[in-house]
Amino acid sequence: MNEPAPPQDASRFNRAWRVFATGFSFACFGLGAVLMGFTLWPLLRLTAPDRRRGIARVQRAVSRSMAVFVWLMKSLGLLTYEVRGRDKLLVPGQFIVANHPTLIDVVFLVSLVPEVDCIVKQALWRHPFLRWPVVWAGYISNATGEGLVAACAAALGAGRSLVVFPEGTRTRPAEPLNLQRGAAQIALAARRELRPVTITCEPITLFKGNPWWRVPPRRPHWVIAVGEPLGLDGYLNEAPPLAARHLTQALTQWFDVSIAQQLGEMRPQTRPGG
Residue 254 is inside which H or E element, if any? Predict the structure, then answer.
């Protein structure tokens, strides 16, 4: 037998609460970024004996801040989540690539990796709330153009971890993945294997074109699954443009299979006669 639906008034109250709590959470996120951007993060950066150590301090503080934000959203009843293979992300110097279905994907990933460089949009340097984390944490701007691949490869070569969303932007529901070749170019330039992370959310929310106040009918659940490394064997012997294209195709295929498998596990199956 199917479980009885919740009373209509209770369902309306739950949805109204999630709209309010989502706005409250994002307001806390912005306020926290401003407060720590003028206090804790510059203090950690400027009192360090050298720039690299200062950046590492700030990145660890940002990671803890992101973890607090995730805890807040979960405590308010806005989401649930699970992480599969979390220990794999703790190895330093990894090139982490992930699909990008929702607005808070980077929040989850940064909260799971104590020290990690990120590629961020140049527009964030002009954002009143978000510019301070990217400035003090030493993140890499995508405005560097042709130097972006070199900057990312240098970060990996220095033993730092790097997280990249190969799509470049969030994916709209039901649209196929469209991975850019930048991630493959970075991996080939740095000669560093890729650590793929599959992110799924059901029911989907906070996707591109969907405002934060348009909450789904029920509380969404995230699954963050860390996969095994994708090596570069066979690609390094090819011409760089061809190798980047083939590696991007392989990465796209990997994500297509992994995403379909995770969503199949998350979505309720219809029973015969149900």
Answer: helix 240-266
56 has a pLDDT exceeding 80: yes
Q: Which residue has the tokens 């919740």?
A: 6
| Residue 45 Cα distances to 49, 55, 81, 101, 223, angstroms | 9, 6, 32, 32, 33
Where residue 50 falls among pLDDT bands split at 50, 70, 90?
very high
The pLDDT tens digits for 239-270 are 999 999 999 999 999 999 999 999 999 876 54
Conformational region of residue 273, where left means phi above 0, alpha means psi within -120 to 50, and beta covers everything else: left
Please say whether the dihedral angle defined by the alpha carbons of residues 63, 262, 253 and 171, taken in this order, is positive or negative: negative
Contact present, 131 and 37 (Cβ < 8 Å): yes
Under CATH, which architecture does the 8-266 domain have?
3-Layer(aba) Sandwich (3.40)
Length of the chain in terms of residues written: 274
Work out the pLDDT band at 41, boundaries 50, 70, 90.
very high
Average pLDDT value for the chain: 91
Q: What integer is the mean pLDDT of 151-166?
A: 95
Measured between its terminal Cα atoms, the distance across the chain in Å is: 8
Query: For residue 194, what are the contacts with CB-CB under 8 A and spacing of at least 6?
Result: 95, 96, 97, 183, 187, 229, 230, 251
Residue ranges per structural domain of the chain: 8-266
Q: Taking the model in full, what pTM does it have? A: 0.91
Q: CA 97 to CA 95: how far, in whole Å?
A: 7
Q: Up-side HSE of residue 86: CA atoms within 13 Å toward CB?
A: 11
Check if the beta carbon of residue 196 is closer than 8 Å to that of residue 247: no
Q: Is 238 exposed, middle or buried (0-12, 13-18, 19+ CB in 10 A)?
A: middle
- pLDDT for residue 3: 45
